[in-house]
Design a protein that fits this description.
21 strands, alpha+beta, ABC3_permease_C, single chain, 15% strand
């Protein structure tokens, strides 16, 4: 006897027989409902864990494959004064740099329909550049001659041009955009620059640096440039023939890194590699080549200036020599006239002929003096001009800007959008896993409880504890593996297919297909297997510690205890008998209370969290364009047309207030070197006070852990001591009021250190406001080209205006202005507030809400089934006591409804808190997610959860009806 007991304690020596296996199989078939619950919960959990990840991963893989195929540059160097072949050779010598090719560029203006004009950048690859930044041909072909051009799909979408059309282009200025030295013939250059050139569209391409889909719904996305700038591609040598561009000067040098070919461009390893190479270039190549370029430009410019000075002073000296000769002649004439006048007798009148000669001499003398004064003025003016030009030459300072792919707005937007969606996919599975473990523990505990007597029998027959434990562990393992397998199918096929449809509407990524990640898929299943299997082992081992004789007897009921409500005498006395029973049952089964309330709270929190994210995105547009932005219309004009635009707005008489500004792209960098693009808005000094009437410059607010907003206060005021930065840009860089940042304006200017005077609340966009005087101090030559010491005049290229009329009238007027030739873009805040949407986020939220609802249904069904199965004898007793079926239904369902309501009460604030955490993790350029939940989202969450509970009752009631009082009340003994 002792030997048998010792054997059992050592794990069992009795081998598995066919009877044991058959009984195990039958018990599994009998427990199909718990099996199905674990299977579905595991399926949903694995699907959520892998689905969103797989969709984002597929997008990154397809984008990375496309970038490699088209050779998108890893590093780009641009210069304020162009780059040369020698610069390119120096860059090729940098360790890790593979291909390094120069790109010539020219800024042009394109004539559109109805007199409209569009800005574009013509790119001409140098020899060998076909492997770097190669455009992806969608229609037609690439240009082969100087009168052909390939345009982007965005251009054909916006201008309605098509393949085969002829477009008229004009250079934006007479100077080559690549930084020409000025050695070409100026008249010839000006003639070519001012001329209208006709180019035939022979191809429609995709710029590899911008994968936005113009034909999808990305046009209504939240990111809009200051003004559309299209990219054109021309054949090699075209810019020289069309615009007389210097073929030896490049606008940029683009490079591919040898070690980056096999790296994912969206990983930290790739970023570290690129950053290292950029640091090497900035440390070793940039200073030396900038100095060489400066000396070359100064030498060339000095030679030109010396020639011009020599020619100018030679002409002045020649004129002076001619004037001196005339003065000598005039002096000789004066001597002759004096001699003749001396011969006239005293008292005699001067002869008429001599008097006339004297008058002529006086006139000639006056003319010579005037001519001398002109020559002196010319000499002084020439000296001043040459001094200014000499100062310009002395101030020549080429500046390199070494950029990675993050400087490309298209690449950064794609990476940010997909990464933000993936962050949601990383957070939600945690809740699913916790719920899966809780439900598995509940389910397996009930299974072991039901087989309590059978377990004792098997132990008494000599079966080991390990053998019996495997009976339940394999049950949970099989359910989890089957559910995980189905979850992988949904996660790597169903959910990604759904997401890719939405993503394809935002980004035109060729060859976007489904991929499978064996490692991540296996780890996803393993994670849930560990959780579920751990719960099963805990539930089974816990009861097997007892002796077989104890297990074969029914478990003694827990001793009764008073609940809290019983101590509240007035309330307890007025409760009915069934209500008292319900209250006692709820608090008597504490594990069921915790599991039900926790499960329902988690599911309700997930539903509300999904709806909260959706509401937050939906509220961004109205809150920004109706609350923060106080203006009604923003209009941007071509440089040079600002006065015409202002006069037109005044003449139309549809505005109540106008504030002229200059808007350009800029970049801010924090102390750690991280940077982000911003919309730099320069405010005229005389209109600084009007800024607060166009924008509500509230100090940025932050959300506390409990959901309320902190911060706020009086409106910020723009001054000359610092800039005002929008909250979205400040958050992405970790910048706050009082910090110092590096600010760079458009056009490749030198960055300047400036203080952040305030960080203001802003949800959409990344505005940075700077006063006119402060802008002049930081960028004194950014808008001037004469090199004078006086402050250059800023071109006020944009207007913020308040309009008369209702929303429809304002939208109509903005659309009318957009058709004007002088207008680059015109937008109405009324239209922006109405049309703002973020389709990708909405699709993910809808998916999450659907999965959370499914999880809630499964959790409620599992808990309800467990509740009924462990209280069969109680239900049978009620029937014996004469309760009707409906009364039994009410008896059980009321408890579940109370527990469901308790779970909802806990789940609503929990969901609000989780929503704040998740939206805080969604760091996206140009967006700040300020959590906003509409009241109907709370109602939807409550109604949906209660509806799931009622639906479960429809499945539970037939089970209660089938309870046989006689068999259920039979004693195990």
């Amino acid at each position: 006897m002792m030997a048998g007991r010792d054997a059992r304690e050592r794990g069992g020596a009795k081998p598995l027989g066919s009877a044991f296996l058959l009984d195990t199989w039958r018990s599994w078939l009998h427990a199909w409902k718990p099996f199905l619950s674990i299977l579905i919960i595991s399926m949903l959990g694995v699907a959520v864990l892998t689905g969103i990840y797989a969709g984002c991963r597929d997008t990154f893989i397809a984008a990375n494959r496309f970038y490699e195929q088209q050779g998108l540059h890893d590093v780009q160097v641009v210069s304020t004064m162009g780059l040369t072949d020698e610069d390119m050779d120096a860059l090729r010598q940098v360790d890790g740099v593979g291909d390094a090719v120069g790109v010539r560029m020219e800024r042009v203006t394109v004539d559109g329909d109805a007199g409209r004009r569009f800005n574009a950048t013509m790119r001409e690859p140098s020899d060998g550049a076909a492997t770097v930044d190669a455009p992806y041909v969608r229609e037609g072909r690439l240009p082969k001659s100087a009168d052909e051009v390939a345009v982007t799909g965005q251009f054909t979408h916006d201008t309605h041009h098509k393949l085969g059309d002829v477009i008229d282009v004009t250079a934006s200025d007479a100077t080559d955009a690549a930084g020409e030295d000025g050695k070409a013939d100026e008249d010839n250059t000006a003639d070519k620059a001012d001329a209208v050139h006709k180019l035939k569209i022979v191809g429609v391409v995709t710029d590899p640096s911008d994968l936005s889909d113009p034909d999808g719904y990305s046009g209504s996305a939240f990111r809009t440039a200051v003004a559309n700038d299209y990219t054109f591609y021309v054949a090699p040598g075209s810019l020289e023939r069309i615009f007389d561009a210097d073929p030896q000067v490049y606008g940029a040098v683009v490079m591919r890194l040898t070690d980056a070919e096999n790296k994912d461009a969206f990983t930290d390893d790739y970023d570290a590699l690129v950053s290292s190479t950029m640091s090497t270039i900035e440390r070793t190549v940039q200073p030396r080549r900038e100095e060489v370029r400066r000396e070359a430009l100064q030498r060339s410019a000095q030679d030109e200036l010396d020639k011009a000075k020599a020619q100018a002073y030679a002409q002045i000296d020649k004129a002076q020599a001619q004037l001196d000769a005339q003065r000598t002649q005039l002096d000789d004439q004066l001597k002759l006239l004096d001699a003749q006048a001396a011969q006239v007798p005293v008292g005699m009148p001067m002869p008429a002929q001599l008097a006339d000669a004297q008058r002529q001499w006086a006139q000639g003398d006056a003319q010579l003096k005037e001519a001398q004064q002109k020559i002196n003025t010319q000499r002084n003016d020439a000296g001043d001009r040459f001094t200014a030009e000499q100062q310009q030459i002395d101030d020549i300072a080429p500046r390199w800007y070494v950029q990675s792919r993050t400087a490309l707005s298209g690449f950064s937007s794609l990476k940010s959008d997909i990464s933000s969606i993936r962050s949601l996919g990383n957070a939600f599975p945690i809740v699913f896993l916790i719920v899966a473990v809780m439900m598995s523990l509940t389910t397996m505990s009930r299974l072991v409880e039901e087989d309590r007597g059978l377990i004792g029998t098997y132990l008494g027959l000599g079966y080991g504890r390990v053998t019996i434990t495997l009976r339940y562990a394999l049950f949970a393992l099989l359910a989890c593996l089957l559910g995980g397998g189905l979850g992988l199918l949904i996660g790597f096929l169903g959910i990604p297919a759904f997401l890719l449809v939405v993503i394809h509407g935002l980004y035109a990524i060729p060859d976007l297909r489904l991929e499978y990640d064996w490692l991540y898929g296996s780890m996803g299943i393993l994670l849930f297997v560990v959780g579920v299997l751990g719960a099963a082992l805990f539930a089974s081992i816990r009861d097997m510690r007892q002796m077989p004789a104890t297990l074969m007897r029914p478990k003694a009921p827990k001793a009764g205890s008073r609940i809290l409500l019983e101590h509240i005498r007035p309330l307890w006395r007025h409760m009915s008998f069934l209500n008292k029973v319900t209250a006692r049952n709820i608090f008597r089964f504490k594990s069921r209370l915790v599991m039900t309330v926790g499960g329902v709270a988690g599911c309700a929190a997930l539903i509300l969290c999904g709806l909260a994210i959706n509401d937050t995105v939906a509220a961004l547009g109205p809150n920004q364009y109706r609350g923060i932005d106080q203006y009604d219309m923003f209009v941007m004009a071509n440089d040079g047309d600002e006065k015409t635009l202002h006069d037109k707005l005044v003449q139309d008489g549809k505005t109540t207030a106008i504030m002229q500004t200059r808007v350009e792209n800029g970049e801010i960098t924090n102390g750690d070197g991280s940077s982000t693009s911003v919309q730099l808005t320069i405010v005229p000094q005389k209109q600084i006070g009007e800024l607060n009437t166009m924008f509500r410059l509230e100090p940025a607010r932050s959300e506390s852990i409990f959901g309320w907003m902190r911060g706020g206060g009086q409106s910020a005021k723009l001054g000359d001591d610092g800039v005002i930065v929008a909250q979205s840009a400040a958050q992405s860089l970790g910048v706050k009021a009082g910090d110092e940042i590096m600010l760079r304006a458009d056009g490749g200017s030198q960055p300047h250190r400036v203080k952040v005077s305030a960080v203001t609340r802003s949800l959409i966009g990344a505005e940075t406001f700077v006063s006119e005087d402060l802008y002049h101090r930081m960028f004194p030559a950014s808008t001037a080209g004469d090199g004078s010491d006086e402050q250059p005049a800023i071109t006020w290229n944009s207007v913020y205006a308040k309009l008369k009329g209702d929303d429809d009238a304002q939208i109509k007027y903005a659309q009318q202005l957009e058709n004007e030739a002088i207008v680059l873009s015109a937008s109405s805040t009324a239209l922006q507030a109405k049309d703002f949407k973020f389709d990708l986020m909405g699709a993910v939220v809808g998916l999450i809400v659907a999965l959370a609802g499914s999880l809630a249904l499964v959790v409620l069904f599992t808990l309800a089934h467990t509740n009924v199965s462990e209280r069969m004898r109680e239900m049978a007793t009620l029937k014996v006591l004469g309760f009707y079926d409906k009364e039994v239904h009410h008896y059980v369902n009321r408890e579940m409804m109370v527990l469901t309501v308790m779970g909802i009460i806990i789940g609503l604030p929990l969901g609000r808190w989780v929503a704040g955490l998740l939206t805080g993790a969604l760091n996206m350029p140009g967006l700040y997610f300020e959590v906003h939940i509409f009241w109907w989202s709370y109602v939807i969450t409550v109604v949906a959860t209660l509806a799931f509970a009622l639906l479960v009752q429809l499945f539970v009631d037939p089970v209660l009806d089938r309870i046989d009082p006689v068999s259920s009340l039979k004693s195990v003994e």
